[in-house]
Write a structure and sequence with these properties.
mainly alpha; globular; 18 helices
């Protein structure tokens, strides 16, 4: 009664009191990292426009509805945002206890891809068709479980105060945990996702404080493994052709090199400010394949020019910068490792996606985080944002 009267005397009604509590010093809203949230929303919004531009005239895939992909992209973003809120509500520490269950589910799902339930898209047998035009790519969620699983193992004894850094046995256990799903994904084969997972593992190890000998050893083993895979012709023919086209851009411009050649033409024609939204000749003429997914950056380069493409890169940079701050400022190793793994994931995947459209990286079929069309990718990156927000929200507030 006294508290209520105090608010009334001070000129605050009950609704104003609730608003004040919402933005109080210890409230959730004040603890959220708003630059990350706003950057992710801006990237998803830009992606919606670019996806619409790339698909509005594609009657061969949009079922006669120019807004088909736009509506689905917005729906995916909304579901992803809800997953982010749910992740913040649960908290990364609660999810730490559920890692064995999450890991088991993710391994089960990628194993299901290898059964008749799996389907092939662009040469990668990495999808499960759910019906009604919906499909699931489990390898996107494996990235999250690898981060959480390795963080749980590497940080357990350090956060408990038993050891200053992970010992060799713990590192081996963490590498074994990551190796199982990576080998399964390699069998699909989904080389792009495996590349991202390798970078995640390296980022996690660097953040954990494990001996640098492990990092150098893994890099050496990776180089030796890549040479062995190439020499033994383990890669599929289409994957070898993509690397050959990357090494020699003039190789088969009407065949395997067609995607990258058309992508460079689209971006190069944009100039400083672009040809104008919905005015790109390469986009309107449907010359760039998979433009709403893997090559969505070409729409920005052609229609919005260097300014529009640069804005996307700046927004990704803001997100990575804030994620690095979260990794540095958290007081527990577990949170540091999770944030660092997400930074490694987003940084490499963004660089690879944009790089392949510019011809400086091989084509691997990786989406641009938040921007490319695709439900599985959108859900996974928003869950990652939720993990970052949870680490920031649950850290002790400074005096």
């Amino acid at each position: 009664m006294t508290g209520a009267n105090t608010f009334q005397v001070s000129g605050y009604g009950p609704e104003r009191a609730g608003w004040t509590r919402l933005f109080a010093r210890d409230s959730l809203a004040r603890r959220l990292d708003w630059p990350i949230l706003l950057a992710a929303l801006a990237l998803s919004g830009i992606g919606s426009v670019l996806v619409f531009s790339a698909t509005r005239n594609r009657t061969d895939i949009n079922q006669g509805d120019p807004y088909y992909f736009l509506i689905r992209h917005l729906m995916n973003t909304g579901i992803g945002f809800a997953l982010m809120l749910g992740t913040v509500w649960l908290g990364h520490r609660t999810l730490r206890t559920a890692v064995p269950l999450l890991y088991g589910i993710s391994v089960f799902l990628i194993l299901m891809v290898l059964t008749p339930l799996g389907t092939t898209v662009n040469g990668a047998h990495s999808w499960i068709v759910l019906g009604g035009g919906f499909s699931l790519q489990p390898s996107e969620f494996v990235k999250i479980t690898i981060i959480l699983g390795m963080a749980m193992l590497l940080a357990a004894r350090v956060d408990a105060g038993d050891k200053p850094h992970p010992d060799h046995r713990t590192v081996l256990q963490a590498l074994g945990l990551a190796a199982v799903p990576m080998l399964i994904v390699m069998l699909m084969p989904d080389l792009g996702s495996v590349m991202v997972m390798v970078i995640i593992v390296l980022g996690v190890l660097l953040a954990s404080g494990a001996s640098n000998r492990w990092v150098f050893g893994l890099l050496s083993a990776g180089a030796a493994g890549a040479i062995t895979v190439w020499q033994l012709h383990i890669l599929d023919e289409y994957q070898i052709a993509r690397f050959a086209a990357f090494a020699n851009p003039s190789l088969d411009p009407a065949g395997v090199g067609y995607n990258t050649n058309q992508a460079r033409i689209a971006i190069g024609s944009g100039g400083l400010t672009g040809s104008g939204l919905f005015q790109g000749s390469q986009t309107t003429g449907q010359f760039v394949p998979e433009q709403q997914t893997d090559f969505v950056f070409t729409v920005a380069g052609e229609e919005l020019g260097f300014v529009g493409g640069g804005l996307i890169i700046v927004l990704l940079g803001v997100l990575l910068w804030r994620a690095c701050r979260i990794a540095r400022e958290t007081t527990e190793l577990y949170g540091t490792i999770v944030a660092a793994g997400i930074v490694a994931w987003f940084a490499f995947q963004s660089f690879e996606n944009i790089g392949m459209t510019l011809g400086i990286m091989p084509v691997t079929g990786l989406p641009l985080p938040f921007v490319s069309y695709g439900g599985s990718s959108m859900f996974a990156v928003w869950v990652a944002v939720g993990l970052l927000q949870s680490i920031r929200v649950q850290r002790p507030m400074s005096a």
